[in-house]
Every structure is written in structure tokens, then in C-alpha cells.
């Protein structure tokens, strides 16, 4: 990490240290800003405060065990991390197309719920950075409803680890459909409510329009994905371009915009939340038709035997013991699997050497690539725009530092 | 069941079909000597080609600007360490084409360099998206990227010793041992 030795550079410019403990850096991001009056002349981001070595730890665990670590990468959207890891494992075990449909539908519903929950945190903190306190409280209220659903299915509010290779850890409880239906009924009106507070608010517009502009070419040059890329005029969404979990069968639109400024990123995410509600609604209807269908692939290489069988059959007990102590063993090879997380293309890249532990696990965090552009957009802007830019890129430091 | 011999018409039709157009992989192999498709299982079915480190910058630049598919998005740059191989380090680039919606994976094996860090040309100057990922590979695997604009450690502190994702770097975990707990008695 770079240490600050001088508070003034030779040219008389002030060096301002922002973070790592700063509410507007959304985690432990440290920025070194060189200022000339109110203008930022240079910005050097400094990360790594949250580096936990998740990739190294995954190499020392078997394929089932590393799953719980993936929740902690992007801690605002644990489900999508689980999903990309699980999908990479499924490709490695050649069972990617054999996952039962009910499991796929639940995966889609949970991914979209996570997307809304994550966007709500983004919206609340982003508005709070720009001085709108009320939105923050409202967003937390609706996010609570999503976390209640998560708690209802898994017993955990955030780090659910609900996915398993070949399906889900358990079926969703009976009242899941009702809770989701409640949410789908309530949410569109709540999004209207946020929009009345912000979309035409002159203060919010002054702070966001024309600020932190990233054009199409810049977005591709810096490896943008997700809402940031779409706000810069590139219609790329992993759910549409490289569909997974049956996303191609759902009816939804990809929100995008041409302006590429902070306001465009705001509008894209607001529209995305509405589209997510549409997907959840369709998914909930499909789920009703699939009542009682299997939620997990039955493949003895990966799946644990049923609990009743373990108690009654010696072979099942041995099978269970082998799967727990040794873990599933894939053929040597490698697989890359990407999902559209709330922040962009979240991917897991697993290389296997044919042993029971992955040789190398790489997590592609979209925030890691999206944040690269920051030092180029905010140089030349005002100090006050720095928080608007960071907020609109929607970073999660857990994913950048891993 | 008696196997029917294929009718003459079918064979003629098969003969008449032109050879499939060269894939982007074929074009890369033709253009950059020494590149080949590694014999390895790619379970995600992504087309993969390995090029020599000295060609990597031209190859990425060609795929981005001149290749018919125009791979205009750099999705990922990642490293890996295979201590048993002759060239123990590997850098993987994944590119996406907005025009054809296809992906291609370009790999580069990097030979060890004695006690010095292994060296590979950086692509950060021709594609800014590779800047931080290359710094991460430098930090985690100790692969040096020549002509990188800002090659510093990125996730570990500047005074950190060693490269954590190398296989010879200890994990620092205590192995779990099975023992009789006090509550179990005896």
C-alpha cells in the first residue's frame, strides 16, 4: 500500500486521503486524491484491506466445502456468487444441462430477489451520499422483506449457501410462494415511491446528470460489465447473451441507456428492479406448476444419499461417508461459468487436476473491473462528485479484494 | 435390424458441402506461429488457443481490431500455477465479441526464469481493462508483465514477501485432526 508522506505536492496541490474508513467509499476503499482547490487532479485507489484469500482457501477444500466461501465474496449478493460457483462445478462434472427444472426456477427467483436487495442497498446508500436520507430508510424496509424470504427458506438472512451442485440444498417451504407473491404485489409501487423522491428531484439531477460520464468506447476499454456497461450504451447482459438457468424462457427487457453518466446508471438500475419483479412473477407461477418435482439431480458422484437410506443401508452410509470425507472428484479439465450478478458479470473459473480439490479457483468480480475506470473519470471533476461516481459504480469491496 | 447403406444421393450431397469456414481459432493458429489448441478438457466448450508469450500482444490486438468477429470486450485475465509442467505459469485471457456473441480463450504458458520472476509482455497499454488483473497476477503469482504502466502489488501490502497463490506458498491453516473431545468422555 502506498503511504502518504507529504500532504502537499511540489506544485502546491493538496493530497487528501479519503478512506479506508469513510462512509462514502462503501467499504474499505482508500482513495488518494490530489486536489487543486475543489478540483481533483489525480486519484490513486488503494485496495486490499479486505483481502481474505478466498481463492487460496478454495484450493484447500473439496468442491462441496468451498461453496460457503463464495457467499463472502460479494456479500450483498451471495446467491449469484453461489450460482456461478455451482454452475462452474456442474460444467466440470458434465451435469450442467441435467439440473431439475424446479431447482432452476428457484435459482432464478432467488437471483432476482438478490438483485433487487442489492440494488436497494445501492440506491439507499447512493442517495444518502447525495444527501437524501429518506430513500435510505425506505430501501432498508423493502430489503428486510427480501431477507425475510431468505430466512424463511434457509434460516439465514444473508449468507444462505442455498445452492448445491446439481440443484438446491432443500426444497423451498410451502409458504415461499405466498411470500414471493406478496413481494411481487408490493414492490412496483415501492419503486414508484423511490422514483417520486429522486427521478425528478432537481438537487439529485444536478448532482448526477453529466457527472462521471463514461462513453461506450471507454466502457469497453475498461472492461465494464453489468448496469454500468448498459448505462454506457452497450446492450450486454449475461442473462440474455449467454443465458443460464433457463433465463431465455423468461420475458423481460434489458434496461440500457446511452448517456453513460451517474443519472443514466441510476435509471438503468431502477428499470432493472422493475424487470426483476417481472421475472420473479413469472418464476413464481412456474413454481406452482412444478410442485413436488425434484430439486436436486440424482447423481451418485455428487449427490448425497437420502437420509432414510443412510439409516437403513450400509452401502448408502459408505457412499455418504466417502462423499463427505473425500468429496466429489471430477475429471481433469477446466470450466468458466458466468452469471449476471447485480454488479455485472460474476464468474467462477475452476481448473481441476483430477483430484478431489480444485487446482485453481478464480472469481471474476465485476466490481474489480468496474472500479478501474474511477481514477480516469474523477480526475478533472469536483471532490463532491467523487462520492457520486463511487456510488454509481456500485462497488463491493469484498469482491474486489476477495 | 438390417443396416441400410446410405443412398448415393446422400453421399454426393456430403461430398458437395464446402469445408466449414475457418474458425477464429484456425485464423489465430495460421497467423501466429507456434500457437495450437491444447489437448485438455474444456468443460465449458469455450474455443481455446494457446499462443507464444512473444505473440500475445499482437494476438490480442488482432482479435480485438482485425479479426472478423471483433472481440471487443476483455472479460477476464487470470493466472494459474502448475509446478509440475515445464512452463509452470499460465495466463488466461477471455474475450467476448459483441458482434457475434462468441467467446474465445487465449492462453499463454510462461516459463520459470530461475530465481527471477517469469516474464510475459503486458497488454495493459493496448487494453486498459487488463491493468488491474495483470497487477493481481503479478501480486498473486509473481509473473512480471513487461511494459506495464504501473506494476505494483494490488491486494497484498507492498512489503509482503512471496506470492500467495503459488503452490509452494503455505496456506497457513492448521490441519484438522480428529481427537476425542472432553465431552465425549473416556
Explain this structure to me?
In chain A, strands 1-2-3 form a 3-stranded antiparallel β-sheet. A 3-stranded antiparallel β-sheet of chain A has the order 6-7-8. In chain A, helix 4 (101-129) packs antiparallel against helix 16 (383-393). In chain A, 48% of the residues lie in helices and 12% in strands. In chain A, a hairpin with a 2-residue loop joins strand 2 and strand 3 (39-46). With 402 residues, chain A is mainly α. The mean pLDDT of chain A is 88. Chain A has a single domain (54-365), classed as Cytochrome-c3 Hydrogenase, chain B (Orthogonal Bundle). Chain A has helices at 54-59, 67-70, 78-92, 101-129, 133-154, 176-198, 202-208, 216-221, 226-231, 238-241, 262-289, 307-312, 314-325, 366-370, 374-378, 383-393, 397-401; strands spanning 14-18, 30-36, 39-46, 163-164, 167-168, 333-341, 344-352, 360-364. With 186 residues, chain B is an alpha/beta fold. Chain B has a single domain (20-168), classed as NADH:ubiquinone oxidoreductase Nqo5 subunit (Beta Polymerase, domain 2, 2-Layer Sandwich). Helix content of chain B is 20%, strand content 18%. Chain B has 4 helices and 6 strands, in the order ααβαββββαβ. Chain B has helices at residues 8-16, 24-31, 56-65, 131-141, and strands spanning 48-50, 73-81, 89-96, 103-110, 119-121, 144-146. In chain B, the strands form 2 sheets. Chain B has a 4-stranded mixed β-sheet with strand order 1-4-3-2. The N and C termini of chain B lie far apart (70 Å). The interface between A and B is large, with 46 and 43 residues.
Mean pLDDT of chain A: 88
Number of strands of chain B: 6
Q: What structural category do the secondary elements of chain B indicate?
A: alpha/beta
Tell me which oligomeric state these chains represent.
heterodimer
Q: How is the largest sheet of chain A built, in terms of strand order?
A: 1-2-3
Query: How big a fraction of the residues of chain B is strand?
Result: 15-25%
Q: Structural class of the secondary structure composition of chain A? A: mainly alpha
Q: Work out the count of structural domains of chain B.
A: 1
Low-confidence stretches of chain B: 6-11
| Rg over CA atoms of chain A | 22 Å
Average pLDDT of chain B, rounded to a whole number, is: 83
- How many strands, which pairing sense, and closed or not: the largest β-sheet of chain B? 4 strands, mixed
Amino acid at each position: 500500500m502506498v503511504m502518504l508522506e507529504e500532504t502537499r505536492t511540489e506544485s502546491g496541490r493538496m493530497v487528501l486521503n479519503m478512506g479506508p474508513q469513510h462512509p462514502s467509499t462503501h467499504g474499505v476503499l482508500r482513495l488518494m486524491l490530489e486536489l487543486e482547490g475543489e478540483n481533483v487532479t489525480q486519484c490513486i485507489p488503494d485496495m486490499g484491506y479486505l483481502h481474505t484469500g478466498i481463492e487460496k482457501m478454495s484450493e484447500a477444500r473439496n468442491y462441496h466445502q468451498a461453496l460457503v466461501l463464495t457467499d463472502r465474496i460479494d456479500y450483498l449478493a451471495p446467491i449469484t456468487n453461489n450460482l456461478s460457483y455451482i454452475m462452474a462445478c456442474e460444467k466440470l462434472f458434465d451435469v450442467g444441462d441435467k439440473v431439475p427444472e424446479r431447482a432452476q426456477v428457484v435459482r432464478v427467483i432467488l437471483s432476482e430477489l438478490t438483485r433487487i436487495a442489492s440494488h436497494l442497498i445501492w440506491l439507499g446508500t447512493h442517495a444518502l451520499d447525495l444527501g437524501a436520507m429518506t430513500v435510505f430508510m425506505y430501501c432498508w424496509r423493502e430489503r428486510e422483506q427480501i431477507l425475510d424470504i431468505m430466512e424463511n427458506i434457509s434460516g439465514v438472512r444473508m449468507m444462505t449457501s442455498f445452492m448445491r451442485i446439481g440443484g438446491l440444498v432443500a426444497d423451498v417451504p410451502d409458504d415461499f410462494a405466498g411470500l414471493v407473491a406478496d413481494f411481487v404485489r408490493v414492490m412496483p409501487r415501492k419503486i414508484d415511491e423511490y422514483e417520486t423522491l429522486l427521478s425528478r428531484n432537481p438537487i439529485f439531477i444536478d448532482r448526477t446528470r453529466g457527472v462521471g460520464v463514461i462513453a461506450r468506447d471507454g466502457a469497453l476499454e475498461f472492461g465494464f460489465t453489468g448496469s454500468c456497461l448498459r448505462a454506457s450504451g452497450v446492450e450486454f447482459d449475461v442473462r440474455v447473451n449467454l443465458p443460464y438457468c433457463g433465463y431465455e424462457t423468461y420475458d423481460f427487457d434489458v434496461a440500457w441507456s446511452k448517456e453513460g453518466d451517474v443519472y443514466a446508471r441510476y435509471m438503468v438500475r431502477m428499470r432493472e428492479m422493475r424487470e426483476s419483479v417481472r421475472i420473479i412473477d413469472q418464476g413464481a407461477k412456474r413454481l406452482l406448476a412444478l410442485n413436488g418435482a425434484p430439486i436436486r439431480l440424482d447423481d451418485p458422484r455428487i449427490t448425497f444419499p437420502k437420509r432414510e437410506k443412510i439409516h437403513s443401508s450400509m452401502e448408502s452410509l459408505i457412499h455418504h461417508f466417502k462423499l463427505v470425507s473425500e468429496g466429489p472428484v471430477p475429471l481433469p479439465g477446466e470450466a468458466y461459468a458466468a452469471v449476471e450478478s447485480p454488479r455485472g458479470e460474476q464468474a467462477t473459473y475452476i481448473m481441476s487436476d483430477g483430484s478431489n480439490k480444485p487446482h485453481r479457483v478464480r472469481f471474476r468480480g465485476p466490481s474489480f473491473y468496474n472500479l478501474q475506470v474511477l481514477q480516469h473519470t474523477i480526475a478533472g471533476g469536483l471532490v463532491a462528485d467523487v462520492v457520486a461516481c463511487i456510488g454509481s459504480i456500485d462497488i463491493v469491496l469484498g469482491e474486489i479484494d476477495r | 435390424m438390417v443396416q441400410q447403406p446410405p443412398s448415393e444421393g446422400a453421399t454426393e450431397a456430403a461430398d458437395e458441402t464446402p469445408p466449414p469456414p475457418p474458425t477464429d481459432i484456425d485464423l489465430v493458429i495460421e497467423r501466429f506461429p507456434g500457437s495450437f489448441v491444447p489437448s485438455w478438457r474444456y468443460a465449458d466448450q469455450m474455443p481455446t488457443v494457446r499462443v507464444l508469450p512473444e505473440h500475445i500482444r499482437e494476438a490480442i490486438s488482432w482479435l480485438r481490431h482485425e479479426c472478423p468477429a471483433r472481440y471487443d470486450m476483455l472479460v477476464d485475465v487470470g493466472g494459474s500455477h502448475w509446478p509440475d509442467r515445464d512452463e509452470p505459469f499460465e495466463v488466461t485471457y477471455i474475450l467476448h465479441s459483441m458482434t457475434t456473441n462468441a467467446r474465445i480463450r487465449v492462453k499463454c504458458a510462461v516459463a520459470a526464469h530461475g530465481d527471477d520472476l517469469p516474464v510475459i509482455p503486458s497488454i495493459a497499454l493496448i487494453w486498459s481493462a487488463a491493468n488491474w488483473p495483470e497487477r493481481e497476477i503479478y501480486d498473486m503469482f509473481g509473473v512480471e508483465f513487461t511494459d506495464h504502466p504501473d506494476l505494483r502489488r494490488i491486494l497484498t501490502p507492498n512489503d509482503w514477501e512471496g506470492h500467495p497463490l503459488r503452490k509452494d506458498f503455505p496456506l497457513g491453516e492448521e490441519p484438522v485432526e480428529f481427537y476425542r473431545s472432553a465431552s465425549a468422555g473416556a
